[in-house]
Amino acid sequence: ATPIPRTLTMTIYGDMDLSIIREKPNIRKPVKTYSKPENKIDDVIKFIKKEIKLGNQIFWVCPLIEESKKLDHSSAVKKSEYLNKLFPNQVFLLHGKTSTEEKEMVLNKFLKNEFKILVSTTIIEVGIDFPNANVIIIENANKFGLSQLHQLRGRVGRGSKESSCILMFKSNLSDNAKKRISILKDSNDGFKISEEDMKLRGFGDILGFKQSGIKNFKLADPVHNHDLFILAEKEIKRIENNNEDISKFKPLIKLYDRADIINDIA
Predict the structure, then answer these.
(1) What span, in angstroms and rounded, lies between the C-alpha atoms of 24 and 44?
(2) SS3 for 57?
(3) 81 in helix, strand or coil?
(4) What is the rounded radius of gyration, in angstroms, for the C-alpha atoms of the chain?
(5) FRET partner for 95 with CA separation of 20 to 30 A, picked from 45, 109, 126, 229?
(6) Residue 202 and residue 6: Cα distance in Å, rounded?
(7) Concatenated DSSP letters of 176-218
């Protein structure tokens, strides 16, 4: 599972009970993640040809259905046409405008291994399980968030075979995009990735609906003071369990009220 930053924050710092399952099924192996600039697409094609010869299947994800004059992003339609020329009769297309009947037909054919490459938008992000698909290529990976990239990567590695995820990107990456790609290459841990996502784009509202964005805290915030929040939560539970007289903690409330002055001094 892929916790989004706000959900992770709520489970760690909110008054919630939770169960954490960190282990994957024994047969599953970690997905190996690589990055490639888009001008190295020939290397990716060679890799795909090798995987197809081994009997494997491939997801190819694009951010757009069709080309846009406003956005310099890869489109699923154009990529499907390109790949069909290289792999005749082995490529099918799936996106949000695909009818329910056609979608079911395409997915059933893919499940039966009747074709090798499924070109898609992020419509495949959740709810599908194809053990024989062990490669996913994500174009314009720098345009996706960490949690979404991890969710997409989770479409492969669901069988006993070794699986690969290739993150393709355009040149001139922003610092944040470089960090996201580096984090994905280094880890398959959904919790760690969500924590890094929280550091990069915030967690939104704890008492509201916004799921991202950095919030201002008077004395500390969950992103930079994780250990302090855990310690504070333990202390609160200890005080409650021991039925301690909370009046002795009034100086802390006064301290909280003077937080702006404290931060100016610090």
Answers:
(1) 28
(2) strand
(3) helix
(4) 23
(5) 45
(6) 8
(7) HHHHHHHHHHH---HHHHHHHHHHHHB---SSSS--SB----S
In single-letter form, the type of residue at position 24 comes to K
The number of helices, as runs of H, and strands, as runs of E, in the chain is 10, 6
Distances (CA, A) of 170 to 119, 139, 140, 174, 233: 19, 9, 7, 10, 43
Of residues 117, 92, 183, the one with CA closest to residue 144: 183
pLDDT of 184: 92
From CA 21, how far away is CA 41, in angstroms rounded?
37
CA distance to 171, 196, 206, 215, per residue, from 210 (Å)? 31, 18, 8, 11
- Helical (H) or strand (E) element with 94: strand 91-94
What is the rounded distance in angstroms from the CA atom of residue 81 to the CA atom of residue 79?
A: 5
- ∠ CA 102-89-41, nearest 5°, is 105
Q: What pTM does this model have?
A: 0.72
Over residues 51-63, the pLDDT tens digits come to 999 999 999 999 8
Query: C-alpha angle 217/13/210, rounded to 5°?
Result: 65
pLDDT at res. 87: 97
The 3-state DSSP class for residue 119 equals strand
Q: Cβ contacts of residue 29 below 8 Å, gap of 6+?
A: 157, 160, 161, 162, 163
